[in-house]
From TrEMBL:
Gene Ontology molecular function terms on file: ribulose-bisphosphate carboxylase activity
Pfam families hit by this protein: RuBisCO_small
Family: Belongs to the RuBisCO small chain family.
Source organism per UniProt: Pyramimonas obovata
Subcellular location: Plastid, Chloroplast
More info: The basic functional RuBisCO is composed of a large chain homodimer in a 'head-to-tail' conformation. In form I RuBisCO this homodimer is arranged in a barrel-like tetramer with the small subunits forming a tetrameric 'cap' on each end of the 'barrel'.
GO cellular component: chloroplast
Domain Ribulose bisphosphate carboxylase small subunit: 40-156
Known partners and oligomeric status: Heterohexadecamer of 8 large and 8 small subunits.
Name this polypeptide is given: Ribulose bisphosphate carboxylase small subunit, chloroplastic
Protein task: RuBisCO catalyzes two reactions: the carboxylation of D-ribulose 1,5-bisphosphate, the primary event in carbon dioxide fixation, as well as the oxidative fragmentation of the pentose substrate. Both reactions occur simultaneously and in competition at the same active site. Although the small subunit is not catalytic it is essential for maximal activity.
The UniProt record lists the keyword Plastid: yes
Amino acid sequence: MAALTSSFMGLTATTAKVAGVSNGTKVSMMNVWQPNNNKFFETLSFLPPLSSMDIAKQIQYIVGKGWTPCLEFSDPATAMTVDHGASGVVSSASCGYYDNRYWPMWKLPMFGCTDPNQVLMEVQKCTAAFPGCYVRVAGFDSDKQVQQVSFIVHRPLGHEQIPTMQRSV
């Protein structure tokens, strides 16, 4: 192995060259995040929009694990916050804390629900009642006392998800 010395702005760094390691051939596969109008929400938002069948499978997974399904909705203006909001928290050191992370709940959590069709019917009712809002399904684990999954099941007109291919440049 040979040592490589490089200089940048007067700083010198010496690194050991590892035989056979190169990223040069994969550079064309790397992308740059498109920051404009490219909002992600919760679990699965890196995927293309979920079909009705995909949503049904995810809900089946939630009830199959014994988690409690819950529906939430939010107006696009308040669905996502860019900063920590009016809480007074000014540091990013408080990882995961931000205002507006809770959306209004559609009815009560569906405690004891074992039929994914019941959840799908409630998704339809919520979407019909609030067509101009985002709607998401969350799954809560009562043993661990945490939310295990949350994903968007409806996006309002004008707020459709950017196709996966256009999320990066």
